[in-house]
Amino acid sequence: xxxxxxxxxxxxxxxxxxxxxxxxxxxxxxxxxxxxxxxxxxxxxxxxxxxxxxxxxxxxxxxxxxxxxxxxxxxxxxxxxxxxxxxxxxxxxxxxxxxxxxxxxxxxxxxxxxxxxxxxxxxxxxxxxxxxxxxxxxxxxxxxxxxxxxxxxxxxxxxxxxxxxxxxxxxxxx
Length: 174
Fold this sequence. Notes:
It is a single chain. By secondary structure, this protein is mainly β. The chain contains two helices and 13 strands. The protein has helices at 11-20, 156-160; strands spanning 25-31, 41-45, 58-63, 71-77, 80-84, 88-90, 92-97, 102-104, 110-113, 119-121, 126-129, 133-141, 144-153. The strands form four sheets. A four-stranded mixed beta sheet has the order 5-13-12-9, with no helix packed on it. It has a three-stranded mixed beta sheet with strand order 1-3-2. A three-stranded antiparallel beta sheet has the order 4-7-8, with no helix packed on it. Strand 12 and strand 13 (144-153) form a beta hairpin.
């Protein structure tokens, strides 16, 4: 019997193909793989195309998925910002992993404000400025965190719209 090629198939589809060819499944082991998705066959023994006696087992190595990466550092962007009272600002969190690659983890990070009376932050990293002052806004992924220094200032738009401009004559008290 010719051993079928089952690499890349799901474990259940591969087992069905092997049994369908008249060979018993010889069990499976798992390994992490950045190439094959979880539950897909990474390799088989014997290899596809090998002639085997009916009843000879075919064993499989099945992907457990992408190996877990350890976060080495986190950053929050912008690293510092100044916004007016009542304004909002979207922050973004970026994780750098042990292999050196970075990715946006804004939606996965756990966000918090060091001074929630000054500014709050939503689960998606959207900051709302409540009162004048300063707040450290942090994003955490596992045990690693990063922060942005936020200053809440007077709402410039509100000051600009306080009323009509007046001409001031030097020497007069307004």
